[in-house]
Design goal:
It is a single chain. The chain has 16 helices and eleven strands. The protein has helices at residues 44-60, 73-82, 88-102, 127-150, 157-167, 180-188, 199-227, 254-262, 272-281, 285-288, 338-351, 371-385, 394-406, 411-418, 423-426, 436-454; strands spanning 7-11, 14-20, 23-29, 35-41, 106-107, 114-115, 296-298, 304-308, 311-313, 321-323, 332-336. It has a four-stranded antiparallel β-sheet with strand order 1-2-3-4, with helices on one face. Strands 7-8-11 form a three-stranded antiparallel β-sheet. Strands 5-6 form a two-stranded antiparallel ribbon. Strand 5 (106-107) and strand 6 (114-115) form a beta hairpin. The longest helix has 29 residues, at 199-227. The N and C termini lie far apart (127 Å).
């Protein structure tokens, strides 16, 4: 025979009842009409306080059903991704990060078990759990990078130059661009492979970028789970985990670019003008290779300008497509200097189809040039030209923006020319070339000397 509770205290939307000595049970009815227990407490006062907190959330509209956080991270992340309005390339990157690093089981740092973050319910994610996953992530991404090194990857020329410079006593920083004279001295010395980077160390450096991107994505997903009121707080709170160290940026000189362009010979000669135009216009690769004949305009003054209206969408494993520029600022008109204009007009006459929708830079069959093919051709041209192998196609855009800054472009002009939405992004290019500060100091000295010469005043009685 079941004993009746000794005492029952009714509450609006909840009640407290005594279940035995020092055992008080609190229950409530949620906004959904479901009756739920809060817990059993040692005193009526403690049970009352717990019930009051829950009912306060109900009345204030901050109440959250306990089971809402039961959805597994894997299910919520995939649902989150499906509801986002993302560019195809961004979507592809997020899918790969989720599939490889966030939702895939990772060996724990000790190797005793697998950490399957994707199978855990959202409410079980904690700072400790995420920290353990992040430690496993660092090991996994480092191992992946080490395997890349074993397949033939390794330190870039920039790493070798920095190590060689330090070994010879040349002053260089821990990061950032190195002076052109250091690069020239390294090449004069025979381009020695001076960096003794162990595969494990190099893998950790490379792997940290992937780890940072994966962590940043997980933090964003969990942040939206907080806004959806599925969890109370974001468990991703590791300081600095989403920060990445910028890769070495190489700004090539004019002679280097000329040599690379000239090295586009044979079947690849049809892309030589693309190197020249990229170097002078600052267009992104996707914008450049999405240009159509109708986007090349002649100005009343006889010049040439490019009307940027679309970009190439090149996602691995999917057909090439065309989409809008990266942002509204990407829709712009870019004027070419005479050298690039002549190269482009000659290219149009020789290689571009006659129709207005014909791609300016296309394959011999008139199809879009995929990023992988472009990179392969660029690498072959760099090798033939003896150019730094760490030089990327994107560095041509950086050179074009640097040239504009050196020519005296204001931040607003530079921002508009390169299609950046913010002044902060455009300020990246406000530095000059490596010897620019030396030239600036020389110009300052000339101005000061001229000012002194023009301001000489002879005072009576003080001469002689």
């Amino acid at each position: 025979m079941t004993k009746r509770p000794r005492r029952s205290i009714r509450r609006a939307y909840g009640n407290i009842r005594q279940r035995g000595p020092n055992r008080w049970q609190a229950r409530y009815t949620g906004p959904d009409g479901v009756r739920r227990p809060i817990g059993t407490f040692e005193s009526e006062k403690a049970a009352n306080a717990a019930l009051a907190r829950v009912l306060s959330d109900v009345y204030q509209g901050t109440y959250r059903e306990p089971e809402t956080g039961d959805v597994p991270l894997r299910e919520y992340a995939r649902r989150w991704l499906a509801t986002r309005d993302l560019k195809p390339s961004t979507l592809d990157g997020y899918e790969r990060l989720l599939r490889r690093w966030i939702l895939a089981p990772l060996p724990s740092p000790g190797g005793a078990r697998q950490l399957d973050l994707g199978s855990l319910p959202l409410r079980s994610l904690s700072h400790i759990m995420v920290s353990e996953w992040y430690a496993a992530l660092l090991v996994a991404t480092a191992d992946s990078a080490a395997q890349w090194l074993a397949r033939g990857g390794g330190p870039s020329d920039a790493v070798h130059v920095r190590a060689w410079a330090r070994s010879t006593g040349l002053p260089v920083g821990d990061s950032g661009r190195m002076p052109a004279r250091v690069w020239e001295a390294w090449r004069t010395a025979g381009s020695p492979a001076a960096a003794s980077v162990e595969s494990r160390h190099a893998g950790t450096v490379t792997g940290r970028t992937q780890a940072a991107h994966a962590y940043a994505l997980l933090r964003t997903i969990c942040g939206d789970a907080v806004r959806d009121r599925l969890i109370e707080a974001n468990p991703c709170s590791i300081r600095g985990a989403s920060q990445t160290r910028p890769a070495e940026r190489v700004v090539p000189g004019d002679t280097v670019v000329d040599a690379i362009a000239a090295a586009f010979d044979g079947p690849s000669e049809r892309y030589r003008a693309a190197v020249i135009v990229a170097t002078h216009s600052g267009l992104r690769a996707g914008e450049l290779f999405a240009l159509e004949r109708q986007h090349v305009e002649r100005t009343p003054q006889g010049g040439v300008r490019l009307n940027v209206r679309q970009t190439l969408v090149d996602v691995p494993g999917k057909p090439v497509a065309f989409g809008p520029p990266k942002s509204d600022a990407g829709r712009r008109k870019v004027h070419l200097p005479p050298e690039a204009a002549r190269a482009l007009l000659a290219h149009l006459d020789r290689y571009t189809g006659p129709g207005p929708r014909s791609l300016v830079f296309a394959t011999a069959a008139g199809r879009p040039v995929r990023g992988g093919n472009r990179s392969s051709m660029f690498t072959r041209a760099k090798r033939r030209a003896g150019a730094p192998l760490e030089l990327r196609w994107h560095d041509l855009r950086h050179l074009a923006a640097t040239r504009a800054a050196e020519a005296g472009a204001t931040l607003a002009e530079l921002q508009r020319r390169i299609g950046h939405s913010t002044v902060a992004a455009a300020m990246v290019y406000q530095h000059a070339t490596d010897d620019g500060d030396e030239r600036l100091a020389a110009r300052m000295a000339e101005i000061q000397a001229a000012r002194r010469a023009s301001n000489v005043v002879e005072f009576p009685g003080l001469s002689g």
